[in-house]
């Protein structure tokens, strides 16, 4: 019972839930759009089995319920519907009547509006034309500026205003053409503009090439103008400095020479006049730089500036190499050097102008690189070509050109220290050419000299000589006119030429920006070279010349003595020029003293040599009859001539220093004694008679008398006679026939015949022995029976044996 009740309760509760669910579904179907009913109906079939049947039942019940409600509503409104239909039927008749009226009105209206329509269409057509015209004007207003700009572009191209043309192109491309880009003519314009740009690039590059060719042609004139201006500026500064020096201090003697300064062939006055008369020109006045500016701007606008810069620099490097290549004969004239320098200066003046007038076309690094390359080439060229110069005037003009060249480029900011260093090398070359020139001058002076004392007839002539040469001699000054000065005419000429050389050497030192001490040192060194090398060589060559005799040699010795004395005046002369005290630590001394001493010693040696040669010439004239029985009783003629020659020669030596004359006299006597001794001992002479010995003795006596007559003062006692002591003792030994004394005293310091050598005595004795034998045979066939002759022969044989033993003893001892 309970189970049944529970089941009934459960069925009842399930039935209520089902009914509630179906009710919800129906409400959802009624309220939901038909397209969304599908999921709702699906939930009916997803529930309990047979639920859809109960749902269908429920649905049918709901439909029937709604049908009853619809029927009720229709019944309620049916009368009103009928009334409305009745009303509508009444209105239809009125409507048909109204329709007829409207049609009639429409017909009448159409007839009336047909004309208006025609007029309206005409108005519309006019309005369309008006709108089209306005549109056309508007478009033309957009196109006209484009065409005007293009026309302007063509005019600019025709007038070669390419930079403005490029700017116009930029405006066309960026502003005007984009506004009307849809038109074909604009497209044609846009396609034409790149071609025009290329044409402009080509034209501007052609102008640049013409410009480069123009500056290559005008570099000479530009450089000439720049160097002239630098020269005028330097001349003006030197004149100002000179005025300051004159007003403040004592002027340096001779620093500007004895004539106005000349630079590059122009005097100061001429330079001033030219500066006043000629208008100052610059590179811009001589060359039109607009092509390079224009080309630079064009390539900058076209975005190709780097290409232009590289091309310009490459071409300028090529031109620099051409400019730096000198002509092969440049060293022959100063004009060749001047043209070379003008071209280089012109080149770098243009580069300096481009550097400052443009921004970045050339840089300071580029110009410095060009200058360093050029400087190395210039120095090499000048070294080579200056070495060919043999004219000191040309070298001096070259130096002036180098100084102006360096000053000009230094004014444009280029370093020129290496050029001034090169000038020291050129200075050495200049000194060499000066030395060669003065060697010819000295040679001419020596060839034209008469090598005799200078005669002066009056006071004026004396002062004229003294003004040219520092000569002071109290004794000669006291003498009456006419009188003679001890030196020859070449001495004042040599002294004057040395001063001229110093002036010439000083000219090179001008404008080198060197101190007085350096100039003093340069002058002294160059003067030392002149004295020690050139003048010394000329003197040595002069002394060695064959035509220079003893008289000339004596005069040369006197001349060198006076020139040596004048060296201190040359030092004072240089000191006055440079104003540098000789007491300065590093002051170079003049070596003229040693030069003239060496020349004097060479002349003295040549005197000794020529005297000996002259003695040999007289000796060769000797013609002794070695077999004579008795002497002539008087000295030989050749010897008397020789003594007379020596006597007259030594009288000329009175002006020589005492020791020189004494040495010459002693040398001549010794050589004469030696020559006479050699004549006796000549191996080709086989026999000598006692008569020949007597004759020879007479000649030696004359030599001794000449020596004792003191041909040259200053010898003490019989010093000069000692030159013949060997001959005298040998001849006395044979004349006295004092062999016993000789043999007994041999080797003793007090020996009477100490100077007689056993070998010499033996050689002469054998010759005398052979001569005596030959004489005896000729004079008497019975001479061998004479007792005296036999005894003398035995004595000679005994003496010969003893002499040979002495000679052998000496050889063994040695």
What does this structure look like?
- It holds the Pfam family EXOC6_Sec15_N.
- Keywords: Exocytosis, Transport.
- 77% of the residues lie in helices and 1% in strands.
- The chain has 26 helices and four strands.
- A two-stranded antiparallel sheet has the order 1-2.
- Helix 1 runs antiparallel to helix 2.
Topology of this structure?
Layout lengths: L1 H30 L5 H10 L4 H108 L3 H18 L4 H65 L13 E2 L2 E2 H10 L5 H4 L3 H12 L3 H19 L10 H24 L6 H23 L5 H20 L5 H32 L5 E3 L2 H10 L5 H5 L4 E3 L4 H20 L6 H29 L5 H29 L13 H29 L16 H16 L5 H23 L9 H19 L16 H12 L2 H7 L12 H22 L7 H27 L1
Antiparallel strand pairs: 1-2, 3-4
Helix pairs in contact: 1-2, 1-3, 3-4, 4-5, 4-8, 5-6, 5-8, 5-10, 5-12, 8-9, 10-12, 11-13, 12-13, 13-16, 13-17, 16-17, 16-18, 17-18, 17-19, 18-19, 19-20, 19-21, 20-22, 22-23, 25-26
């Amino acid at each position: 019972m309970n189970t049944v009740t529970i089941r009934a309760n459960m069925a009842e509760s399930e039935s209520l839930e089902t009914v509630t669910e179906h009710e919800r579904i129906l409400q959802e179907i009624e309220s939901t759009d038909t397209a969304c009913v599908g999921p709702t109906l699906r939930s009916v079939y997803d529930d309990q089995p047979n639920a859809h049947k109960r749902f269908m039942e429920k649905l049918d019940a709901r439909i029937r319920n709604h049908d009853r409600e619809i029927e009720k509503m229709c019944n309620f409104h049916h009368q009103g519907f009928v009334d409305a239909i009745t009303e509508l039927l009444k209105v239809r008749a009125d409507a048909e009547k109204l329709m007829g009226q409207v049609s009639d009105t429409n017909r009448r209206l159409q007839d009336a509006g047909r004309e208006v329509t025609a007029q309206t269409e005409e108005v519309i057509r006019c309005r369309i034309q008006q709108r089209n015209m306005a549109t056309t004007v508007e478009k033309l207003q957009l196109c006209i500026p484009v065409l005007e700009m293009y026309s302007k572009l063509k005019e600019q191209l025709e007038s070669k205003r390419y930079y403005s043309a490029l700017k116009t192109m930029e405006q066309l491309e960026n502003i005007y053409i984009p506004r009307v880009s849809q038109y074909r003519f604009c497209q044609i314009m846009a396609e034409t503009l790149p071609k025009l740009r290329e044409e402009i690039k080509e034209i501007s590059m052609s102008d640049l090439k013409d410009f480069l060719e123009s500056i290559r042609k005008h570099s000479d004139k530009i450089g000439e103008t720049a160097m002239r201006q630098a020269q005028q500026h330097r001349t003006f500064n030197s004149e100002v400095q000179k005025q300051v020096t004159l007003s403040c201090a004592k002027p340096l003697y001779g620093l500007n020479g004895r004539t106005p300064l000349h630079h590059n062939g122009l005097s100061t006055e001429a330079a001033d006049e030219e500066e006043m008369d000629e208008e100052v020109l610059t590179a811009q006045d001589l060359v039109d730089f607009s092509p390079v500016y224009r080309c630079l701007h064009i390539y900058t606008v076209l975005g190709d500036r780097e290409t232009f810069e590289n091309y310009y620099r490459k071409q300028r490097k090529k031109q620099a190499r051409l400019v730096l290549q000198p002509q092969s004969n440049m060293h022959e004239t100063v004009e060749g050097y001047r043209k070379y320098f003008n071209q280089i200066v012109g080149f770098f003046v243009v580069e300096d102008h481009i550097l400052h007038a443009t921004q970045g076309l050339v840089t300071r690094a580029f110009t410095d690189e060009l200058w360093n390359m050029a400087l190395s080439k210039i120095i090499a060229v000048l070294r080579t070509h200056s070495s060919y110069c043999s004219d000191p005037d040309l070298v001096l003009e070259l130096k002036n050109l180098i100084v102006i060249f360096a000053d000009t480029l230094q004014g444009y900011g280029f370093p020129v220290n290496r050029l001034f260093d090169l000038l020291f090398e050129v200075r050495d070359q200049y000194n060499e050419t000066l030395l060669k020139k003065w060697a010819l001058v000295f040679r001419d002076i020596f060839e034209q000299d008469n090598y005799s004392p200078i005669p002066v007839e009056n006071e004026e002539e004396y002062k004229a000589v003294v003004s040219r040469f520092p000569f002071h001699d109290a004794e000669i000054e006291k003498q009456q006119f006419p009188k003679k000065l001890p030196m020859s005419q070449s001495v004042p000429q040599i002294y004057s030429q040395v001063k001229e050389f110093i002036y010439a050497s000083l000219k090179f030192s001008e404008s080198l920006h060197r101190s007085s001490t350096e100039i003093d040192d340069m002058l002294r060194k160059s003067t030392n070279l002149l004295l020690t090398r050139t003048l010394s060589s000329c003197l040595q060559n002069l002394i060695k010349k064959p035509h220079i005799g003893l008289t000339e040699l004596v005069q040369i010795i006197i001349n060198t003595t006076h020139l040596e004395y004048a060296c201190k005046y040359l030092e004072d002369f240089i000191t006055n020029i440079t104003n540098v005290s000789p007491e300065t630590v590093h002051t170079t001394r003049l070596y003229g003293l040693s030069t003239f001493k060496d020349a004097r010693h060479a002349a003295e040696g040549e005197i000794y040599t020529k005297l000996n040669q002259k003695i040999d010439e007289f000796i060769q004239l000797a013609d002794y009859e070695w077999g004579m029985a008795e002497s002539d009783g008087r000295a030989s003629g050749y010897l008397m001539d020789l003594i007379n020659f020596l006597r007259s020669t030594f009288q000329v030596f009175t002006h020589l220093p005492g020791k020189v004359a004494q040495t010459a006299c002693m040398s001549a006597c010794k050589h004469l004694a030696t020559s006479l001794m050699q004549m006796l001992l000549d191996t080709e002479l086989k026999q000598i008679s006692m008569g020949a010995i007597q004759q020879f003795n007479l000649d030696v006596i004359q030599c001794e008398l000449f020596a004792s007559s003191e041909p040259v003062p200053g010898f003490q006692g019989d010093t000069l006679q000692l030159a013949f002591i060997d001959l005298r003792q040998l001849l006395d030994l044979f004349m006295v026939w004092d062999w016993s004394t000789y043999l007994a005293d041999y080797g003793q310091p007090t020996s009477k015949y100490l100077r007689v050598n056993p070998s010499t005595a033996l050689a002469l004795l054998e010759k005398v022995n052979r001569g005596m034998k030959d004489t005896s045979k000729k004079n008497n066939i019975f001479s061998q029976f004479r007792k005296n002759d036999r005894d003398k022969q035995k004595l000679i044989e005994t003496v010969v044996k003893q002499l040979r033993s002495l000679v052998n003893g000496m050889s063994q001892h040695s």
